[in-house]
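Explain this protein:
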Amino acid sequence: MKKGEKKKTAEGKLRFRVEKEGTGLDRSTEAKLARLEAEMAAQEKPLVPTDNSTGEIKETGRANLFLLGAVFLFTLFIAKLPFSDFIFGPLNQFATMIHEMSHAIACVATGGHVTSMTIVPDGQGHGGLTSCIGGIRFIHYQAGYLGTAIAGCLLIFFGQFKHRSRETLVAVGTLMLLSTIFFMIPGLLSPMFFQALASLIWGVVLSLATIYAGLKLKDSMANLLLLFLAINTAMDSLRSITMVMTASIFARHIFSDATNMEQLFGMPAILWSLLWLAISLAMLGFTIWLSYFRKR
């Protein structure tokens, strides 16, 4: 006999015993208990997905994938508009923040110490700069581009959960605020004071704006914002790697994580760029499959 059948048989025997021996309760109480039992039975859900529930999951997955595609196309569309810089300026700073945070977190995670972190240009070819003492350079030098790609993939993954989008935004904003406090403030005591101050302002604004959006927006709008950030973060990682790779092909010297890796470990910058591009594309493809195509 199956487990479910045994359970039903035991419940039947118990009900028969109660009916036979009596409950000792008055009729009104028994009626209330009967109604409560009926309500609980109506709310019970099957332990395994039924055909209907599986269909609902598939429909939800298709809707989420359609929304992701729509946000992607919308992003490409507004990128061509004259005022796109006003929109993509903060988004680029957001992606730069994620890039430098990835360096800093990898530095600390491998036993190093971050002395400063900036997310604004310094006039010497750096769009942002994280200064790390110690740690494993082979890891934290690569963490910028790959960390940004990972962050974009995570945002895409969590973007499928519409009713968790607000919490995700608050979590991202909180992590950014903590990074601003612990990694940027020490830079105020360095020779890069003005870059550190500008970065600190950007960091606080971006962090608080993300937290505020998570606290105030409705679920649907928070989900759209999360997907928008996810796509732009992932695209920024791929775009930045491609720019470094192109510069390496045409022998244009630019400062980048790839050139750092070339100087330290000998392998040409273009090969590091190709490796990071392949890893980023693989992660992105796996994330989309896991989020929207995997059988549930």
User: Anything to note?
Assistant: Residues 56-233+275-293 form one domain.
